[in-house]
Structure formats: structure tokens, C-alpha cells
């Protein structure tokens, strides 16, 4: 059974210049022990779609979906009280900027203990024990001393570990990590990714990893969702996605990776830019930049079609024999 | 013929005040002896983790700061051994672009004014001629002449980075120092900007110093690389050779931590334990010894010299052992 099941999630923001659709038709099934990656360029709606699940969007956001359920609870109609029991306990999230998500005024030990108090109702002694255990689990040396440290006394990598400790404190079933390593050096990034994957293996929690780093995706994810201008355009198992991308955008994005063009004189590029709020084209949103475009693409919006775990939004998918480089 | 730019044993030390009641000051060795020599048309990449001294080296190369010790030579001339007029003449030969495409352009100035700035400062040129030059630079970086009258906020990150390139190259410098020029950009935009850099380098026969922590980008564009750790060069030489066969344990760890999409490009993940030591209080002997998997007694007492081994410069007592693993 799916832990999280989403059909046709849309998020519209009310702005001064009218309504803007930031997420436009996302389908998602997350099962236990899944590692799902969401990729796509800046502004494609990766964070907003996950924040919608968490109920963390501002009131200017209008969320609609045909279905948005976590273990059978309808997240669209759930009461705030019931939501608080799920969010932070069964579903936890870590954010890109660890420094801005930790409260600078409290010790890291206190902040972890607060989460434990709120969701697991542990007493003082049990909280301290679990906090030390957690810091140890995320690889922080001398945890008995570190619980007294304030965030500014720790490096970026350490703070990210604290965030992870806090997120997994209440044994979540689903952990959403939004660019957890973007601000970190590669050797620290490797440590954090290994840590997340090991925790996932040990606890069996499901992991959603939002990242723009295709190397990280290829090395960690089992399934991948690709987003473009708010829309989900493709979903595949990880090998399939990297070996035979079907959507022209996925294909072009992978071709643009520096490591894929080591023998070419120049890097293949995608001409043009992602359309903004005001200049979204009719029909397929990728049509002005697509190498495979045909007349029908400009007239009609391609629907998201699912077959098994695969999903694709395109009238004329890339033929695995012709990658159009 | 002399190199376009050469550095000889460059050092830059900063006095820093310790925080606390007894404000005693100490010395931070941001760059502790780097030498290089770069010909026109070639690219030297400087890599290493945050704080290792990459930007410090860039500030010395661009004459923004004076070295504490050592010499810089632009076309064979040491600017600091000459008078101020010589420095400002040589400054026109060397230009710089920065990582942050948002912070580096003055929001109140028009694009045209921004690109013409270096001309106004350094040359006497009639306004009409300046405008022609600026417009031709705009088209060289793939923007349009009518963008001349627009303001930076109307442009995306990738477009702003092109504007920064146009400004840096308007005086036809011989040397370009690019400090993380594509790190803030999405993959497809990154590919566009890298191509523009390579095109202009070829056209203008530029010597390019490319600073980056992203090894997949560096692998794509560098001829030579310099790997730094805590202000010191640990390995330096032909880029392809070092990527294919790194000999310093730190270079190996860095490459192993860089995720790759293509399984063939993946190196065995060398686990680097621990955090980067404080640059104010670097480890004795080899600065990397606290994290090195080949460490022996000698490493903590004697600093290894940068020496020619395996056709490249390496600073490690046991490079031979590291190479075999
Ligand atoms: N509170 C808000 N009000 C209006 N628009 C918003 C708001 N939050 C996000 N957006 C817009 O929604 C779109 C999707 O944003 P989102 O943060 O999901 O992108 P992303 O894919 O996570 O990008 P990045 O890789 O940069 O994190 C963007 O165009 C963004 O500007
Ligand atoms: N003006 C200064 N005064 C004191 N210390 C400085 C100064 N400038 C740089 N440093 C220190 O020198 C060291 C090297 O800094 P530098 O900016 O060269 O690193 P970097 O390799 O460019 O790092 P990053 O990848 O984060 O940009 C750091 O420890 C930094 O804190
Ligand atoms: S629907 Fe048409 S324009 Fe859109 S991605 Fe597919 S082929 Fe390209
Ligand atoms: S000198 Fe010793 S500690 Fe330093 S890199 Fe070589 S083996 Fe490692
Ligand atoms: Mg985001
Ligand atoms: Mg820097």
C-alpha cells in the first residue's frame, strides 16, 4: 500500500499580477522503503509541491488535488490537530538552509528534545537519552557535550546533521529532504547522503530527495520524477531515466551535463529559458524549446500518462534509438 | 615567450583577532605558497573545499590584494615591483567574474552602463563608439543589442552571468579569472554559459583561471588543475592525468565524493571522516593528516613538500602507496 498517494496536485499563488500556477498536475505514489528523487530546474515547483503535502504553504497558496492521502488520511480535509499528529512525526522534512531552520537562541539539544516532548511525550530523562542517541546516529562526535552547543558554534555540515537528527527523532515513515546538501562541500555532501541512505536502510522509512544534482540522483534514488515549469513531465526507475529518457526535456537536460559531453567540442544546450508566469505558451509548456515539437504540441496540452511506475507527459516521446544530440 | 600569468610562491596571510576577553591576534594563512604558470588560450582550474584559499588566490591574481610573500607576473611583468601606472595598465589585461549573478551587478544601472564601466574608467572613447562596443559584446554573449537600456532585475541568473562576462571581456583582456562562475546556475543554463566562456576564450585567446568546487565542470573545461587544502597546494598538473589517476589522498577523496551519473566515471567512495580543521589552527605536519586514510607517524610531524612525482606536483610522503590503492 502507498504511504503517500497524490493525484493531480495543483498549487496556485495569488499575486498582485493575478493567479500563478506553481504546481500543475503532480502524481505521486510513495511506498514504504522508497527512495524517490524529484529533479528539475529552479522554480519548477519541487519545493512547493512538498510544502503542500506538509501544509506549510502561506495562505496565498490555493491547493487542489483529486487525491492527497497519507496512510488513508485525507490531507486536504484533515483537521489541524490531526495534521499536527502526522506532520513532524510520521512525515518529517529537512530544508536546504540548516542555519535558518534551527533556532539560534536555543541549544541544539533543547531543540531536538522539544520535538521529542511534543510528539512522543517522553519524560526528561528519556528525552536526553534519545537526543544523545540521535546525535550519535547522525555521526556527531562527543554527543554528550554537543547537546549544549548553539547552532552558530557548529559548521554547516554539523548543522545539517542536527536537522537530520531532529527530523528522524520521532521515527518518521516518510522523510522529505529538500536540497539537503546544496550548501555543503562535496566531501561533506557525500557523508550526508550516505547517512540519509543508511538511515533509510536501517529504519525502512521512505525518502523523498529533492535535488538539482543529477549525480546524487543517479547514485541514490530508486525512482525519479522530473518537473518542468510546475508540471511533472516524466517518472521512471532511475536506470531507465538515465539510460533512456523518454521526455524531450529530460533528454536535453541530461545531455547538458558536463560529464556527458567530455568528447564533444561544446556542451549541448537547451535554447531559450523556462517560461515565467506571464509567458507560458499554449499547448505543451516545453514546445518553444523542444527539438521534437510538432504542430499538435502547440495546440494541445499533453496529459500525464501513467503505465506502472512510469509516467510521461508528451505527444512525441524520444525514441531510445534517437536521442537527438 | 613568457606566460600570460604566472604566480611564484604566492602567500597571503591575514591578521585576525580572536574573539574573547583577551583579544590576542593571530595569523590566518589563507594562501600558503602557490605557484603556477598559465599560457594564453589555456585553462587552469583551482579546486578544493570552502575556505581553502581559492578566492584569495584570485584576489592576488587580479591585483585586488598584494601578496604577503611571492610574486605575480602578468605577461612577464611584476606589477607590484613597478609604479602605480604600471599596475593600472596591467589591470586592463586581467578581468574577473564572480559567482553571484545577483549581487555582482549594480541594480540601479542600465546594462549598457554596466558593460561600459571598464571602458570609461580605463580608456578615453567617444560615447557612440563605447555603445557600439557594448552592443557587440551583448551579441557575443547571446543577448540582444536592445537589452542595452534594461536593468539587471529584468534578467535571469544565467543572463546576468552573461552580462558579467560581457563586462569582463569588453576591454579585450588577456586573462580572465572566473570565481565559481556557474555554481549558482541550473544545468541547462550552466551549459550555455560554459559554452560562451569556451567560445570567447578561443576567439580572444584568453588565459582562463577557473575556480570551482564542482569537479564535473572542471573535468570538462580545464587543461591544468591545482588542488588546494587549507591554503596549500596538494596536487597540481595536467587535468586529464590527475582526473584519471589522482595521486594525493585528498584529490582521491574529492574525486570519490563527486557523484557521477555515468557509473564508469564513478570512483570508489573514499570516506573522509571528520570535518575540515580550523584554518587558524591547522594540523601540524601534513595538514591533511587528521583525515587521511594513508596517514603514518611521519605525517603529523613533517610537512610534505610539493614535488614532481608521477609527472605532476604532489605534496605527500606516501603518494606511491596512495597511487596503488
Ligand atoms: N509564497 C509564494 N508566493 C508566490 N509564488 C511562490 C511562492 N513560493 C514559491 N513561489 C513560486 O512558485 C514556483 C515554484 O517554486 P519552488 O520553490 O517550488 O521551486 P523549486 O523547484 O523548489 O526551485 P529551486 O530549485 O530554486 O528550489 C516559483 O516560480 C516560485 O517563484
Ligand atoms: N580579509 C580576510 N581576513 C581574514 N581572513 C580571511 C580574509 N579573506 C579570507 N579569509 C580566510 O582565508 C581563508 C581562505 O578564504 P577564501 O575566500 O580564499 O576561500 P575559498 O577557497 O574561496 O572558499 P569558498 O569555496 O568558500 O569560496 C578562509 O579561512 C577565510 O575565512
Ligand atoms: S509534447 Fe511535443 S513539444 Fe512537448 S515535449 Fe513532447 S514532443 Fe516536445
Ligand atoms: S603526507 Fe601523510 S597524511 Fe599527508 S596526504 Fe600523504 S599520507 Fe596522507
Ligand atoms: Mg526548492
Ligand atoms: Mg571563494
> CA-to-CA gap between the ends of chain A?
40 Å
Q: Structural class, judged by helices and strands of chain B?
A: alpha/beta
**Mass-distribution shape of chain A:** globular
Portion of residues in beta strands of chain B equals 15-25%
> What's the rounded overall pLDDT mean of chain A?
91
Give the bound compounds.
adenosine-5'-triphosphate, iron/sulfur cluster, magnesium ion
Largest interface: A-B, 39 and 40 residues
Oligomer: heterodimer
Helix content of chain B: 25-40%
Biggest sheet record of chain A: 8 strands, mixed
Summarize the structure.
The complex is a heterodimer of chains A (325) and B (325). Chain A is of the alpha/beta class and 325 residues long. Chain A contains 12 helices and 13 strands.
Give keywords.
heterodimer; A: 325 residues; alpha/beta; 8-stranded mixed beta sheet; 5-stranded antiparallel beta sheet; 33% helix; B: 325 residues; Rossmann fold; 11 helices; 22% strand; globular; binds adenosine-5'-triphosphate; binds iron/sulfur cluster
Helices and strands in order, then pairings?
The complex is a heterodimer of chains A (325) and B (325).
Chain A (H helix, E strand, L loop, with lengths): L1 E14 L2 E14 L3 E5 L6 H9 L6 E4 L2 E4 L2 E2 L5 H7 L4 E4 L3 H4 L6 H13 L3 H14 L5 H4 L9 H13 L5 E5 L7 H18 L2 E5 L3 H7 L2 E6 L2 E7 H6 L4 H8 L39 H5 L5 E3 L2 E3 L13
Helix pairs in contact in A: 4-5, 5-7, 7-8
Chain B lengths: L4 E13 L7 E14 L4 E5 L6 H8 L7 E6 L9 H8 L2 E4 L13 H12 L4 H14 L16 H13 L5 E5 L7 H18 L2 E5 L3 H7 L2 E6 L2 E7 H6 L4 H9 L39 H5 L5 E3 L2 E3 L4 H6 L1
Parallel strand pairs in B: 3-7, 3-8, 5-6, 6-7
Antiparallel strand pairs in B: 1-2, 1-4, 8-9, 9-11, 10-11
Helix pairs in contact in B: 3-4, 3-5, 4-5, 5-6
The complex binds adenosine-5'-triphosphate (2 copies), iron/sulfur cluster (2 copies) and magnesium ion (2 copies).
